[in-house]
Amino acid sequence: MKVLIGIVLAAGKGKRLCPLTETRPKILLPILGQPVIYRHIDLLKKLGIDKVVVVVSHFREKVVEVVKDIANDIGVEVDFVDQKEELGTGHAVKVVLRKYEDDAVISYGDIYIQHTKLLPSLIDVVRRKDNYIVGVEVGDISRYGKLIVDGDRVLGVIEKPSEGGRGLINAGIYVVKGSVLKLVEEIGLSPRREYELTDLISIANEKGYTFKFIKIESEWWQDIGYPWDFLKSVKLELSDIRSRVIKGEIDHSVTIKGAVVVDEGAVVKGSTYIEGPVYIGKDTVIGPNSYLRPYTSIERGSHIGFSVEVKESIVLEKSHAAHLTYIGDSIIGENVNLGAGTLIANLRFDEKTVKVSIDGIRIDTGRRKMGAIIGGYVRTGVNVSIMPGVKIGSYSIIYPGVTVYRDIPPNAIVDRDWI
């Protein structure tokens, strides 16, 4: 019998997540202290897989460094295959087949999954002799690959169907026998000029092979296509916290309501008020007199200081909001410094849903409250105001007193004249 391997596709740029992916790939965005890809590698290990092949390209060196550490911690052997040309998921698997021909579990490493909840269903599937694809029901299938099914069989996948609406879509996890996996060599270019792994299903059906599907709960899965999907992924993970886990140091005058995780080395100073669920990462400093509201995640080494309020936001590693700042429904990149009095607005005057520019197109977030997306290493001066839905590129500097109404490119220096 051939050895079962894990294949994690981790080569994508994540362009729609800019500016967050200007300084790192999407798979390395942290969710409660662990990169997105961590959950995929841990899932494969728990399925009994000891060899994981990670397909890399964009930010290759960073991915290799982080994934080696993850593999060492989890206890799996890891190999890296460089896709070089990013020509789609089917092409990524073709590159792997130059070295491996085993039965495989394949996962899209840039998708958030609650891997421990997925595990029982996948263990059962791996033990069977059929090929499987994991499906999940979503409210709008127009962003995804719609599964065409007949009973428990999958006949094919329609990428980004125009009709939209609720339906069953490809969740990005496959269990494929080696004999069927070889058929990826027959995948041709799609209308999007990519080699789509989903085309393997229709090719397999034509050859007399069968793909079946299992359906998972929608709360266990989230595609991280847009920045607000990242917010939702963290919210799903925080929603799963049921108790308080206190590993750091908390002053006696701190008030905690609900479920909270305070990781190792964190310090929460006096008169801070925390409403869970909230995650406070390793070596962070919170307070004094900070206010952390529900569904907030503060990643490793960050500082949320005096009279700073954070509401349903993600603050990435080593960022600082030392005093008199409001962060609402926002994502703050790594190594950002928000000057005193920086305010991030999250609500339009007309209370309509907030739109964000993605590749020059205004996309409706579907959120009534949505703040800013700030790239890594940004600096704001005192009394800067940032309007809802604004993106600020990495390494930009915003001068004191500026009100930011529109997107800022990376490496910009913004004063009143620039705006």
From TrEMBL:
Q: Does the keyword Acyltransferase apply?
A: yes
Q: Does the keyword ATP-binding apply?
A: no
User: What Gene Ontology molecular function terms does this protein carry?
Assistant: glucosamine-1-phosphate N-acetyltransferase activity; UDP-N-acetylglucosamine diphosphorylase activity
Could you name the domain of life of the organism this protein comes from?
Archaea
**Keyword line:** Acyltransferase, Multifunctional enzyme, Nucleotidyltransferase, Transferase
The Nucleotidyl transferase domain covers 6-233
- State the Pfam families in the record: GMPPB_C (PF25087), Hexapep (PF00132), NTP_transferase (PF00483)
Q: Where is each Mannose-1-phosphate guanyltransferase C-terminal domain found?
A: 274-356
The UniProt entry's sequence similarity note says:
In the C-terminal section; belongs to the transferase hexapeptide repeat family.
Q: Which reaction does it catalyse?
A: N-acetyl-alpha-D-glucosamine 1-phosphate + UTP + H(+) = UDP-N-acetyl-alpha-D-glucosamine + diphosphate; alpha-D-glucosamine 1-phosphate + acetyl-CoA = N-acetyl-alpha-D-glucosamine 1-phosphate + CoA + H(+)
Pathway per the UniProt entry? Nucleotide-sugar biosynthesis; UDP-N-acetyl-alpha-D-glucosamine biosynthesis; UDP-N-acetyl-alpha-D-glucosamine from N-acetyl-alpha-D-glucosamine 1-phosphate: step 1/1; Nucleotide-sugar biosynthesis; UDP-N-acetyl-alpha-D-glucosamine biosynthesis; N-acetyl-alpha-D-glucosamine 1-phosphate from alpha-D-glucosamine 6-phosphate (route II): step 2/2
| Protein name, entry field | Nucleotidyl transferase
Q: What GO terms describe the biological role, i.e. biological process, of this protein?
A: UDP-N-acetylglucosamine biosynthetic process
